[in-house]
Design goal:
Blueprint: H1 2-9, H2 21-24, E1 29-30, E2 33-34, H3 36-44, E3 47-50, E4 58-61, H4 64-72, E5 77-78, H5 106-114, H6 120-123, H7 127-144, E6 148-149, H8 150-155, H9 157-167, H10 174-183, H11 191-214, H12 220-228, H13 234-265, H14 267-275, H15 278-292, E7 301-303, E8 307-309, E9 312-314, E10 319-322, H16 324-328, H17 331-334, H18 364-381, E11 386-387, E12 409-411
Parallel strand pairs: 4-10
Antiparallel strand pairs: 1-2, 3-4, 5-7, 6-12, 7-10, 8-9, 11-12
Length: 412
Amino acid sequence: MLVKRIQKNGIDLSALSFIPEQTKIPLQRDVMDPLPKIAEWRAAEPMRKLELPFTFTAYLVTGHDEARTILTDRDSYSNDIRHLFHGDGPATADDIGGLGFTDPPLHTRLRKIVTPEFTMRRLARLEPMISDFVDAQLDALEAEGPGADLCKAVAFPIPFQTICALLGLDYADSQAFAKLGSDRFDATNGGAAAFGAVSDQRKFLFEAVARQRKEPGPGLLGQIIRDEGDTISDFDLAGLADGIFTGGFETTAGMIALGTIVLLRDPEYADLVRRGEPEDVDRVVEELLRYLSVVQVAFPRFAKHDMELFGTHVKAGDVILTSLNGANRDPAAAGERPEEFDPYRTPPSGHLAFGHGIHRCIGAELARMELRIALPKLFQRFPDLALATSQAELSFRQLSFVYGVDELTVTF
């Protein structure tokens, strides 16, 4: 009955209280690995139709080359999802913005505003600050003693403080805001909880932008207000802050925690990080990004017109979803044994952990910098670091667009 009602009346995603089992597969994992079904689908057909009770048709792309094709094409797809919201749920079309859900030319203008802040040259000035954040959080971990939670003491605070400092946000509402960052990516309880977190988080950012309008601070928000003035609206500025915050906080926190688990499984690679040679650390970080692919699915693309795509007739309005973890495990790109963690692999093409094309994560280099600083310091400071429980006892996120673990007790 529910399916028939949805098919008849359309769908308000914010009211969605269930997710079909087949649709869960791209968001589920076997510990660090995508479900075997993803590899089966990729081998059979790199783009597969998903059976959804919606008025639109959705396809999942799992092949690496096919994913790059979709993500590179800026003319055939729209990222704007506001037409899916009817306006009566916990989030409305007015809550949706930011670079990920914006099309050119607005996307081009907004990205141009923030791109200079994320160049390697500009980011270099943040390195001492990030190093200090890492040292302080490792002090906190040591003070907690064996049995401390690495997520709470290290993995979450480091990117959170970094993004707050970058944007010029104060830390007054840090705990509540950080919790919303996790909730908005979690589809376990359907759409209502996730979109409610989106709405609450956006309200927080609108308030922060309003304060900065009156008194621009030293961070990125204040700088944009000084440079752009009234030519950028509060809505667009809050959207930029939202994208930077959620894209740079939850993802990097997941990488630090999950990366620690992966390295603890193999002492050889942990030693490689501990020695801290830049080339070796870079190898490990890049392979962790490919192997973990914490952002499991890229922003949805809506076909602008009818087209033939990988042997399938796609209609205007159809949704193309790209499985980033599936694409990064494609042997055609990752080489032999793509399911293994191997910092010495030499794939013929780069990974897609940050996406690709005009919507590629703008904070990619910042995330790399945080990982290159945090992981060596962690393993140098605690040479006897170990999990306090077996990996089987860890509670990994079961249905989240950003994969991770919320608690990681360790000994040292």
